Amino acid sequence: MKLQFLLLPDDQEQNSGILYGLNNLHTTSTDDPEAVQLLLKNLTRLMADQTTNASPISNKDSGNLRLSVADGIVFIPLDEIRYVKADGPYAEIHYAKDKMVLIAKPLKEICSRLIHPSFMRVHQSYLCQLNWVEKIHRDGYLVLKTQEHIPVSRANWQQVIDALTALKNG
User: Fold this and answer.
1) Same domain, 159 and 118
2) Same domain, residue pair 64 and 99
3) C-alpha angle with apex 11: 61 to 58, nearest 5 degrees?
């Protein structure tokens, strides 16, 4: 019998950036008692983090993305997020019609915490909310309902088309 579980780092620093993403899933056998103990420990920590909501980036709040920013906390409804753009060690979260917030977290960390079926990493520098896509342009970019253009990498092109087709038809 196989189990899938999250491997989390042992340090408890607030800014340690514990990532709960699919990239950290590992498989082990239930015959290994140490692995089962690690699973229980990590699940306990995960449940504690969910109840304290201490994460600087969280989408556990009923359809909102919770962000710690310099002057407080911002709650952004998930359906209002158009896209997230990488800017070095920062990320620009573009939401609503013309709003943007800059946070001190890399795009990779946001992607690992914002796991939602309508969000997709379409480019090395972009995470896009597929519900905002109006058109797929053959020159390699998406056109959003706001007429903004989001580049799509060649490596992700077919996956983006498949995901949009499934979303729009399903």
Assistant:
1) yes
2) yes
3) 10
